[in-house]
Every structure is written in C-alpha cells, then in structure tokens.
Amino acid sequence: MSQPSTSPSVRPEQAADLAAARAAYEELRAGGLKLDLTRGKPSSEQLDLSDALLTILQPGDVKAADGTDCRNYGGLQGLPELRAVFAELLQVPAEQLFACGNASLTVMHDMVAHAMLSVLPGAERRWADEAEIRFLCPVPGYDRHFTICDRFGITMVPVPLTGEGPDMDVVEELVAADPRIKGMWCVPKYSNPTGESYSDETVRRLAAMPAAAPDFRLFWDNAYAVHHLTAEPTEVLPILAACADAGHPDRAFVFGSTSKITAAGAGVAFFGSSPANMAWYAGLAAAQTIGPDKLNQLRHARFFQDAAAVETHMERHRALLEPRFAAVYEVLERELGGIATWTRPSGGYFVSLQVPEGCASEVVRLAKEAGIALTPAGAAFPGGRDPRDSQIRLAPSFPTVDEVRTAMQGVAVCVRLAAAERAAG
Ligand code: PMP
C-alpha cells in the first residue's frame, strides 16, 4: 500500500465539531487508560511460539553437524547449518553469510564504525578522514538508523518513499552528483513504518546507478524478510545478485535477524555481502570477538531444520498479528474515514497513519495525557522532525486485540480533537 504523498488537510466544517470533540476527549481522559502502541515488540503469545528453544539442547547434545563443540570458542562466520537456512530467506549465498550475535542493529552500527576507522574495499580513504559523510534516508524510516547516523556525525539526506521504495529519480541524481553520499538506509520489504516493499525496478536501479563515491554502500536492512501479513508473500529481488549483475559487486551490505521470528533481542543476527566485503569485515570482527554464541545458533538450527520450517513458524505469528491489524483498520475506517489516511501493509509490524497536516504532535500529546503512549511524532524522520507534522507510526503487535481496539478508539478521539482545534484556529 503506498504512502500518500500529501497529508489530509483540515476542513472548515471540522471547527463545528470542536465542542463534541472536546467532550469526547474529556470522557476518554476520565477513563484512566494505560495502553502502549509505541514499539514493534512481539506479544507474549508470539514469544511463546519459540519456547522450545529454552529446552531444545540437552547435556551431551552440543555438537554441530560438522562435529564442532558449540560450547567452545571459534567459528567467526557462525554455524554452517544455520547459515544455510537463513541464506535462502535472506537471498544471500550461504558461503557469503555470517551468523553473528543477538542484534542486527549492532552489526549495522559496527559496519559504520569499521568504515570510519578502516578503508572499505573500493574506498580512497577512511570515512573518518573525509570532511563530511552523508547517508540517504528514505522517509518515513526507522528511527534507530537515524540514531546511528547521529552517533557518527553523518549528515542525513531525506528522500521520499513512493509506495514502491525510494523515489529513484531523486536517489540517482543525488548519488551520481555527490561523493559525500557514502551510504543509504534501505528496508526493502514491509518497510518500517510504511510497510512498503521495493519493486523490481527500484532494486535494479539501486544496483545499477552510477555513484560519485567509489565506496558507496546500500545498508540493506531486511528485518522483515519473512514477516508476511497475507497469504501472498511479497518477493523482493535479491540485492547481492542484482549488484553483481550490474557490475557493483561490493555495493550492498545485507542485514537480518531472528528478532521477530524467535526471541526478540535473544535471537541471531546475520550479515551478508560480497567476498571482498566479507574478508574486510572478518578481519575487523576478529579484533572484536573470537566467535559468536554458537550454542544459541545451534538451538536455532535445531528449531528450524530448513527455510520451510521458518515459513511455517511465521504463519503462526501471522495468525496472532492479523487480528490486531484488523482491529486497527476497523476503528480507523469507522472513526477517521475522510479525516486521516493510513497504510494497509501486507507484512511487517506497523501501520503508518497520516493525520491532517500540523496535527501529529498534538495527537500524540493528547493521547499521552489520556494514557495512550504513541511513538513520538516525527520519530520516523531524521532529526525527529516531520516537515508536515502529519505522520504517526502505530505498532499494534504487543497489546491484546481488545486493547488495540480501545487504544485506537482513543487515538481517533485525539485525531478528531486535534483536527477540530486546528480548523478552529
Ligand atoms: N531494523 C528494522 C527495520 C527494525 O524495525 C528493527 C526492529 N524494530 C530492527 C532492525 C532491529 O533488529 P535487531 O533486533 O536484529 O537489532
């Protein structure tokens, strides 16, 4: 579902609704709710789906398929049998994939730190020795990507999303002209927060476009590779193959993890790239660790014998997530048709709500006062500033279906009041 390019505007007749909206809001506030739609965390029922991981290994059963004792040091690239399962799902050849620690965000952060301190394949110098480093940031996007840029003093250049990925006319022009642009954040499937996936044309153009920086990298964060919300999974072209075909084999860094597949924050992260980038990374990672947690990787390999087992497991997640998303749409359609617009993603964890321009911060403030925590307005934009003050990210996975419905009814009351207040001036 595409992200609307314009925000709904306030209509004059909404001013007349002000008194009614205020009364509804006072009633909401008196209700003393305590609900949270802020972060895309799995619910406890979703976490229960992977509880077998807690007991799947027993004393005496700690060897990998090749005989490696997983209790001991070593194996920087991670367990081969687990890499084989996720290679297919992340569209990276198993021999080009690392199974790492517990969080892909750590690997993304480290990759920027390494590029700052060590010369990337193809680079003329370390990023720390450049006068300025810029990253393209499709917006609305994932706030933690922007936090990594902030941490390293990287200038963020917002680019619009179209519903099929970033606006490639804009991206191609910027990347071809500006050697300071060294990177670009991409969430290619069921993006956070718009839910959109990159079309084949978007992927091909990203792989093929000329870049002024010889060390330009796509930070391909495939966090939602298998997180479908419909019976027809979306396919995105494999980026490593597209880059190799286009003559830019070292362009993409691919990231993924089992965070929203098994235990969030206690799963396994993955990193895939070209042989040159792998060798570069392996040399640097060897200074950080003697090897990853192979016992956790073995647990995951036992739990998921093959890629099909992961897909079956994700169906169980979908069964728990779908009713929560349905509750969001049900309330939005009933309460906010004609006032707001929203996405209907076919995967991922979020609904992106567009409220009338200039109202998002006020909606979030009103909701907070009424006991409903929403992601701060603007969080999906670099610097935390949405130029239209219109976008709100809704994360319905964690609360129960009834709580989602109640929270969304409250959000609708807040949107009506903010819109009416604005219309009334
Ligand atoms: N990337 C995206 C786009 C995400 O939405 C999330 C989780 N919210 C992450 C990465 C975090 O992944 P991990 O737990 O592997 O660090």
Automatic annotation (TrEMBL):
The keyword Nucleotide-binding is annotated on this UniProt entry: no
Gene Ontology molecular function, alphabetical: L-aspartate:2-oxoglutarate aminotransferase activity
Pfam families in UniProt: Asp_aminotransf
UniProtKB keywords: Aminotransferase, Transferase
InterPro entries attached to this UniProt entry: AspAT_Ic (IPR024551), PyrdxlP-dep_Trfase (IPR015424), PyrdxlP-dep_Trfase_major (IPR015421), PyrdxlP-dep_Trfase_small (IPR015422)
Protein name: Aminotransferase class I/II-fold pyridoxal phosphate-dependent enzyme
